User: What shape does this take?
Amino acid sequence: MIRFHNENASVTPTNPSVLPSREYAAFLFDMDGTILTSIKSAERVWSAWALRHGLDPVTFVPTVHGKRTEDTIRNLGLPGVDPVAEALGIALAEIEDVGDIEEIAGVGRFLASLPTDRWAIVTSASRPLATARIAAAGLPLPPLLVSADDVKRGKPHPDPFLLGAQKLGVAPQDCLVFEDTTIGLAAAESAGMDSIVVTATHTHPVETRSAPVADYMDLVAVRTESGLLKVQRKIGH
Assistant: This one.
């Protein structure tokens, strides 16, 4: 899995600056580019794979952004290439290359403030790769992890987020999604969920219908009187 920021998606751009004001039963977080940055690692692995298969890394690598590895390879239709086997090889290479993975600023504190049964990570990475990257970023393993291995259809289909809500025992419309890609945001929208776009790893503006946050440094999670969750900016920010 790799995260770049020039993919296309059918999301009407408005870019509101105000965070969602309603209360939610749970928060769902994408992984790469949302709670941690793994761009350098993924770039190295995917570029090497592209060269081995006669593809131009400059034009090819950005197209894999936000999707499951197996789906990306299968969509290429390369003769004699087994998407499952190739995806496994890429995942193993990415697991070995985690030296410069870091958490998105402030996310460790933000996640630690959430009730353990009210949040999950929903990623397009495989489970072994996700756990390796989370550990490399110095973050604790989540109470619930939905990975590429858990669904037949990955993002932009809503299935991963719907499964996250189901496993947490909450209604989809009562979940708030944190994402960094338009593919992921489209999946959240298809699932009937509100979303926030995290822009820490973006190299240029991405127009979405979601309120942007650079990172988690000025965010706080508030437990309401009804026992639900709200996200707010720190006073003075």
Remarks:
- Strands lie at 26-29, 36-37, 102-103, 119-122, 145-146, 175-179, 194-198, 211-213, 219-223, 229-233.
- The first strand starts at residue 26 and ends at 29.
- The chain has eight helices and ten strands.
